[in-house]
Amino acid sequence: MRLALQMAESALGQTGINPVVGCVLVKNGRIIGMGAHLKRGHGHAEVLALQMAGEEAKGSTAYVTLEPCSHFGKTPPCSDRLIEAGVSRVVVAGTDPNPQVAGTGIAKLREHGLDVAVGLLAEEAAAMNEAFNKYIVTRMPYVTMKTASTLDGRIASKTGDSKWITSPASRAFVHTLRHRHQGIMVGVSTVIADDPLLSARGDVPAVQPVRIVADSLLRVPQGARVLTEQDRQPTILLASAQAPAERRAALEARGITVLTCGDGPQVDLTLAMRQLGEREIGSILLEGGGKLNGAMLEQRLIDKLVLMFAPKLIGGGSGAPVNINFDGFAKMDDAITLDRLKVEQFGPDICVTGYPNYKS
To answer: Concatenated DSSP letters for 176-237?
Structure first.
């Protein structure tokens, strides 16, 4: 099962709104087939493993990281393929998170006489598909907030200088995070200040995330790099209905998608997430400034935080922007706490990952 999980992990960022799944077939103590779902609409892990095993699949045990599907979608049901191949036993890490179909694949296998065990390394399997697990139920994207700051929480100096806060090792890790999400989101102030390309670079497959910019009044500069290469890496602008019509028309003429997210002066971020979910964007890496990060957190739209800290102190008072900025709470008891903390080190930098626990 650990090998199946490793194979599934290798496909993170490549399957769109589909889950990552790995499968290993074992017979007489020997691996006879293995596979991973690599792209939406392409072969599922079980099918690829069966193809590798051929006729040897009969009487084998299949280790699968997610319950085999039992319905027709872009590909035929995997449960049927396992039955037809004569697999005798199936070990499943986790059931399908979709309540409408959860357990149906397992039930089908058992109805046809296969021995099915469920729950081996279930927590690891669920964590790997945390974005899928949310999206399949809510149709809202799973949002990971990533910040890179000094130890005193600054994302730039009082003069606006921000290159570089963290080390090359941290920046390489961030590109892995980018690759594993379907979208990268920033605010227009970040675009104006830094002119980022918002691409995934480094030793990763050439699947680029959609670039998303929260830009209420469509202030994005016409020469901004996020508006380039739309055929390779599309950009979506989240705007208010109050944005000037001529700016919208000019951007749309260049192939830029502009979504109207509310009638107020600011983008309705909850509505924006719903609209992005409708466009089958199931995961977003938020790399915003303090205000956008704070607004998303305040509206409980953040599912996970990745907070990177360089061993630096820069000060700067109110002139140096902070990584998260919102009105805040009157009492410490009301604070948003982080659960399931993980602390890692990248070069000299510390990375704290956690899941927000919003008070009711």
So the answer is: HHHHTSSEEEEEHHHHHHH-------SSS-S-PPEEEEE-TT----TT-GGGS-TTTS-EEE
Identified catalytic residue from 9, 46, 246, 252: 46
Write the single-letter amino acid at 333.
Answer: D
- Beta carbons of 340 and 321 less than 8 angstroms apart: no
- The residue extents of the domains of the chain are 2-131, 140-357
pTM for the model? 0.93
Topology annotation, domain 140-357: Dihydrofolate Reductase, subunit A (3.40.430)
Nearest to 58 by CA among 15, 10, 114, 100: 114
Q: How far is CA 299 from CA 102, 145, 272, in A?
A: 30, 13, 12
Residue 214 CA to chain centroid, in angstroms?
Answer: 18
**4 touches 63 (CB < 8 A):** yes
CA gap 302, 292 in Å, rounded: 11
Q: What is the dihedral of CA 118, 3, 113, 82, to 10 degrees?
A: 130
| Strand 115-118 to 210-214 pairing | unpaired
46 assigned to active site: yes
Task: Please report, in tens digits, the pLDDT of each residue of the chain (360 residues total).
Answer: 999 999 999 999 999 999 999 999 999 999 999 999 988 888 899 999 999 999 999 999 999 999 998 876 666 789 999 999 999 999 999 998 988 788 999 999 999 999 999 999 999 999 999 999 999 999 999 999 999 999 999 999 999 888 899 999 999 999 999 999 999 999 999 999 999 999 998 765 568 999 999 999 999 999 999 999 888 899 999 999 999 999 999 999 999 999 999 999 999 999 999 999 999 999 999 999 999 999 999 999 999 999 999 999 999 998 999 999 999 899 999 999 999 999 999 999 999 999 999 986
The burial class, CB within 10 Å (0-12 / 13-18 / 19+), for 56 is: middle
CATH top class, domain 2-131: alpha beta
